[in-house]
Amino acid sequence: MTKVMGAAMRRIQAGNALTAFGIGFTVPFLYIYVAQVRGLGSMAATSAFVAFAVSALVALPLTGRVIDRRGPVPVVVGAAVAASVGALALGLSDGLVPILVSALALGAGQAVMQPALATMIVWCSTPGTRTRAFALQFFMQNLGLGIGGLIGGQIVDESRPGSFTLLFGIEAVMFLVLAGVILTVRMPHAPSIKDAVPRDPAQAGGGWKRMVRHRAMAKLLVLGFVIFFACYGQFESGLAAFGTEAARISPSTLGFALAANTGAIVVAQFAVLRLVERRRRSRVIALVGLIWTAAWLIAGFSGLGHGGAVAAAAAFVTTYALFGIGEAMLSPTLAPLVADLAPEGSVGQYNSAFALVKQLALALGPLGVPLGAGAPMLYVAVFVAVSLGIAVLALRLGRELAPAQDQPSLLKGAPQAVAAKAAAAAPVAA
Questions:
Q1: What is the Cα–Cα distance from 236 to 238, expressed in whole angstroms?
Q2: Is the pLDDT of residue 68 over 80?
Q3: Where are the domains of the chain?
Q4: Which spans are transmembrane here (predicted)?
Q5: Does residue 187 sit in helix, strand or coil?
Q6: Where are the beta strands (DSSP E) in 219-339?
Q7: Does residue 195 register a pLDDT over 60?
């Protein structure tokens, strides 16, 4: 990594952390703000969350090509400004329509930032340093979210709507700080239309069609959807409903479980990084599937009622902690793999597609609520099977990857030979 790349990476990571810090001020309190503080009820709050998801699903398919053609910097800046306007407007809104419009702007801005920032990290890293760069990004995001949430919890007061306006105002300022930081970043090469066009004529054009025909990427998108649906999609919906209805978990215990998840990520991130860097990515993902299988089995124990309330609470908190360890293993694995699979000039498109799959999984996650609340043991059994499926899908994905894509550490030993193999394993039509 050159000095220019290192300097750019530090600014990107700092901006990313400050943005997460700002988001942490509002994410835990959005439901309370809409439903109770503004007095609009639970359906209005649910509609706000739906607006977030819809805006992301609409914006992301259009984002990748813009990133590849114009570069990620203007995309991040534009998305940050849109998110800032949305956050501030949300804090000032007191009716359903203004809240939904504000949520659309905020949701679209946040969604578009993800692939654009990921592309910046790719441009400022090498295959050998990319794993650690994405691990650091995930670590800083969770640390920022956690600290922001803790401070926001001390400021917020349900009897004072102005306290919520202050939180959204802080979030809006942090988005503008991100835009300012990114504008000072000197990218290793100047993005332009010609730089974004693949040099290999056989790979030129095609867009989404070409990507879907890329067998390794298609399998990774399917695997990513299953991962996000089975983990992130259940955190605040199905799994929370299971804990409340089946395990009789109190809200305070649920809070401890979420804290255990964040704590596991923060503590384990760089410990597991050493393990991940030396292992094949496909096998790391498969191991995460097995860890999450154990997590779901422990969650099932918490719902059986054996051992009393204390044992159920401990099992439930352990479930969230195990999910955190799996997340810490995936953060330096999935995003770098997407970048390494992307043909030249298509990193933005591939990052946007993966972000779209994540948003789709999160949007469908609440489908687990009726099962988690009404048939808790069936709910656990389904996601035990899904987690085992993650392991199987990961091993099948490994068969499609070149050695350097599956295990980038090989580049340190024989960069030229492995790079040649990686080049030979360019997108293969199904």
A1: 7
A2: yes
A3: 1-185, 207-423
A4: 12-34, 40-60, 72-93, 99-123, 135-156, 162-185, 216-235, 255-272, 284-304, 377-395
A5: coil
A6: none
A7: no
